[in-house]
Amino acid sequence: MNWITNFVRPKINSMLGRRDMPENLWIKCPETGEMVFHKDLEKNHYVIPSSGHHMRISAKERLKRFFDDEQFELLENPKVVADPLKFRDERRYTDRLRDAKTKTGLEDAILNATGEIEGLPIVATVQDFAFMGGSLGMAAGEAIIKGFEAALDQKRPLVLFAASGGARMQEGILSLMQLARTTVAVDRLKEAGLPYVVVLTNPTTGGVTASYAMLGDVHIAEPGALIGFAGPRVIEQTIREKLPEGFQRAEYLMEHGMVDMVVSRLEMKATVARLLRLLLKRPALSVPETAPEALPLLPEASETERQEG
Predict the structure, then answer these.
(1) H helical segments located in 78-171
(2) Comparing C-alpha atoms, which of 206, 119, 230, 218 is closest to residue 160?
């Protein structure tokens, strides 16, 4: 027993009236090492002000910041078999699912919601990387299809935020089947003439990139997002060549035509709303005209000046 830690320090703190402070008041920027106060980071949509680095955010937080007045309605996800293959590696799959649900408060990696952005009614589907790396399994696949069906029923465009490490290995071939099933859902939405906009966040890889994440009408990426099928290390080991600087990052992919635009999270809502108005052939938001500044009054000309003029 450490008597200084366990007895002396608590006694001093109680005498001075000190309270335990949370340890996450300051967030360290992964790029520059700068420490940012958590309230400032939260106000800036979890984007580091100086470096522009985009921190990961939860699905609920993204929905709250994306919809008008933070108002939206969550759609209930379909129920599926929790562990169809009775999979076990170092731990049972059911234990991993239980821990992920406890950690995130979600039933799986996908959330669907309906609401409005700048007055446009839409359906939004968000993938949460915190839930087992945003992996795509049967539950996530069913939830994505539910989002597309809601968009079809309500005749609304769908905006999907992708964030995933790929297919969920604990579900084997059943996970890979979701690639084809979600692709069919995308085709149905396009046949109905409804826009489908994909926002690629960090990271978007594996089978998700090989299916619904790269089938949008427009592909937007957050700055610095890792986007690809296999990871850079795997590719380097396979081809035994050094990859270009920034390979598979959002900016590199935009330069090479795989992504349409790279947009900061701070401007994402306005950009998506503008794109949807173009795709839906809706008029742009009217900008209030400002009255021109009044010109200064000229002094009246004197009698002599009038005669000379």
Answers:
(1) 93-104, 138-154
(2) 218
- Class of residue 205 by CB neighbours under 10 A (exposed 0-12, middle 13-18, buried 19+): buried
Amino acid at 34: E
d(CA 220, CA 250): 9
Whether the CB-CB separation of 51 and 33 falls below 8 Å is answered with no
Query: Token digits for 51?
Result: 């470096």
Q: Is the pLDDT of residue 300 over 90?
A: no
Where along the chain do the CATH 3.90.226.10 domains lie?
Answer: 57-280
At 73, list the tokens. 């309605």
Classify strands 218-221 and 72-75 as parallel, antiparallel or unpaired.
Answer: unpaired
Rounded Cα distance, 123 and 151, in Å: 6
C-alpha distances (whole Å) from 278 to each of 95, 193, 257, 283, 284 are 46, 13, 21, 8, 8
pLDDT, tens digit, 9 for 90 and up, residues 156-176: 999 999 999 999 999 999 999
pLDDT (tens digit per residue) in 59-90:
999 999 999 999 999 999 999 999 999 999 99
**Quick one: how many helices (H) and strands (E) in the chain?**
12, 9
Q: Read off the pTM.
A: 0.84
CATH of 57-280, one of 1.10.1160.10, 3.90.226.10, 3.65.10.10, 3.40.1280.10: 3.90.226.10
Dist. CA 274–CA 255, nearest whole Å? 22
Return the structure tokens found at 255: 């330069």
Compute the distance between CA of residue 96 and CA of residue 302 in angstroms, rounded to an integer. Answer: 92
Place of tokens 């994440």: 213
